[in-house]
Design a protein that fits this description.
Layout lengths: L1 E7 L3 H12 L4 E5 L6 H6 L1 H18 L1 H4 L11 H25 L3 E4 L1 E6 L2 E5 L5 E11 L3 E3 L12 E2 L1 H5 L7 E5 L3 H12 L3 E5 L11 H14 L2 E3 L2 E7 L5 E7 L6 E5 L1 E4 L3 E3 L6 H4 L22 E3 L10 H15 L13 E3 L4 E6 L2 H6 L4 E7 L4 H5 L6 E7 L5 E8 L2 H13 L4 H5 L10 H10 L7
Parallel strand pairs: 1-2, 1-6, 2-3, 6-17, 8-15, 9-10, 9-15, 10-11
Antiparallel strand pairs: 4-5, 5-6, 7-16, 12-13, 13-14, 18-19, 19-22, 20-21, 21-22
The structure holds flavin-adenine dinucleotide.
Length: about 475
């Protein structure tokens, strides 16, 4: 029997694409090589990292701000095996949830590694080594990404780890050295620092969080230093000697110069991720990739080979679960003859540290580079009543609006619960709102989101509580 759509990979891009295709009446199958569905995000990415961040944040709160609010709990203790159990049970419930949804939508789930033998034919090699060939009108490649590696540094997932190993450390290391001050490095660095490790982050660039509005990134850098993380910027790790009891890490200035050797117990390589297409057979059928190994697609997620589409981390754009989900929905709708579309100008980005960073739209640097005149409205959480009640006053909201039309071009939040508040900004931008639209929208009091309204008022220099 031939399918209408076979999706290879069941990460957030793939499983969402399959569900949308099934909703639209297409006969759909997914092929997944791992034992569980959900891809990087559910198994070793978004979900387990947020479980670790949530638990470690509460642990720190219990030992810190609780006392300021009159709550006496004594000195909290961390039961690391129980924390890992909690993380794993979270993963399990999520991946089982995907299995349930696939079944509910009558999607055939085929376990095994998929290889495209020709347009319309996917060979699947099952865990038992047996192969079968599935026929389909359309193939969606949603094979995601893998950890980027450093030349000459072998990740053993024990002492030299990727994010996957860093989620599973069986004991709190005395010293953790992280290569890369991007989102994953800062999130996992925060987790282990809260649990008691001495954390140093080595970053090639002269600033942390590349791509984030630099005013936000610079303030956040100072906050992280206050929390106890140490940084070595404009530096590169060139070798790790794992022969002794401790790891000896060779660090050089990024621009070249004398190297120094740092000792640590664990090295986390968090320099990014690369698209994953190993064994997929793309070369055989002539699917084009770019110079970074990403599958090249047009605005309709079509590769250069008719009937083969690609979405998620394996194509260009930010490597984010929700970006892949949007693409999955759009690709399914396009295959079904509808007008699926993704608005890449409104993809929120969140750093789940404490405080959080959440942003959507353009940064100041991007607007300057594009020569777009803009106005800025800012409001600090220290002037927000709810933030003061919550003893969480660090950070600010910043709104960038077009100088001529007042249309909101970017919103950047450094502060408590930024992850939730950014949705308001995304909806406003999706509807082409002006800063005045946000400013004239009634926000409940006392809420953190009033800081968004005040920042919008500040664009026209008329904030009330500042
Ligand atoms: C530590 C960490 C934390 C993260 N936190 C966040 C976060 O908070 N928010 C966020 O938005 N993003 C986060 N991400 C990124 C997010 O996980 C990815 O952007 C997302 O998973 C990409 O989805 P995808 O569907 O494109 O691919 P993936 O999730 O990578 O899924 C690809 C799937 O394809 C399967 N596959 C590959 N090749 C084959 C084959 N030949 N045959 C069959 N199956 C195959 C793989 O087994 C996998 O299941 C995080 C990532 C990491 C590592």
């Amino acid at each position: 029997m031939a399918y209408d759509v076979i999706v290879i990979g069941t990460g957030p891009g793939g499983y969402v694409c399959a569900i949308r295709a099934a909703q639209l009446g297409l006969k759909t199958a997914v092929v997944e090589k791992s034992a569980t569905f959900g891809g990087t995000c559910l198994n070793v990415g978004c979900i387990p990292s947020k479980a670790m961040l949530h638990a470690s944040e509460l642990y720190e709160e219990a030992g810190g701000r609780f006392a300021q609010m009159g709550i006496k709990v004594g000195r909290p203790a961390m039961d690391l095996p129980a924390l890992h159990k909690y993380r794993l049970s979270n993963v399990e419930s999520n991946v089982k949830g995907v299995a349930f949804l696939l079944k509910k939508n009558k999607i055939d789930a085929v376990q095994g590694t998929g290889r495209i033998v020709s347009p319309g034919k996917v060979e699947v090699k099952g865990p038992d080594g047996k192969t079968q060939v599935l026929e389909t009108k359309n193939i969606v490649v949603a094979t995601g990404s893998d950890v980027a590696r450093l030349n000459g540094i072998d990740i053993d997932e024990k002492r030299i780890v990727s994010s996957t190993g860093a989620l599973e450390l069986p004991t709190v290391p005395n010293k953790l050295l992280i290569v890369g001050a991007g989102i994953i490095g800062l999130e996992l660095g925060s987790v282990w620092r809260r649990l008691g490790a001495e954390v140093m982050i080595v970053e090639f660039l002269d600033h942390i969080l590349p791509g984030i509005d630099s005013e936000i990134a610079n303030q956040f850098h100072r906050m992280l230093q206050k929390q106890g993380l140490t940084f070595k910027l404009s530096s590169k790790v060139t070798a790790v000697d794992a022969s002794g009891n401790t790891l000896k890490v060779k660090v050089e200035p990024a621009a070249g110069g004398a190297a120094e050797t740092l000792e640590t117990n664990i090295v986390l390589v968090a320099i990014g991720r690369v698209p994953y297409t190993d064994g997929l057979g793309l070369e055989g059928v002539g699917v084009k990739k770019d110079n970074r190994g990403r599958v090249v697609v047009d605005a309709h997620f079509r590769t250069n080979v008719t009937g083969i589409y690609a979405i998620g981390d394996v194509i260009a754009g930010p490597m984010l679960a929700h970006k892949g989900e949007e693409e999955g929905v759009a690709a399914a709708e396009i295959i079904a003859g509808q007008a699926g579309h993704v608005n890449y100008d409104v993809i929120p980005n969140v750093v789940y540290t404490n405080p959080e960073i959440a942003s959507v739209g353009k940064t100041e640097e991007e607007l300057k580079a594009a020569g777009i005149a803009y106005t800025v409205g800012k409001f600090p959480f220290s002037a927000n009543a709810r933030a003061r009640a919550n003893l969480a006053t660090e950070g600010f909201v910043k709104i960038l609006a077009d100088a001529k039309t007042d249309r909101v071009l970017g919103v950047h939040i450094l502060g408590p619960d930024a992850e939730t508040m950014i949705a308001e900004a995304a909806i406003a931008m999706e509807f082409g709102a002006s800063s005045e639209d946000i400013a004239r929208t009634c926000h409940a009091h006392p809420t953190l989101s009033e800081a968004v309204k005040e920042a919008a008022l500040a664009v026209a220099k008329r904030a009330i509580n500042m």
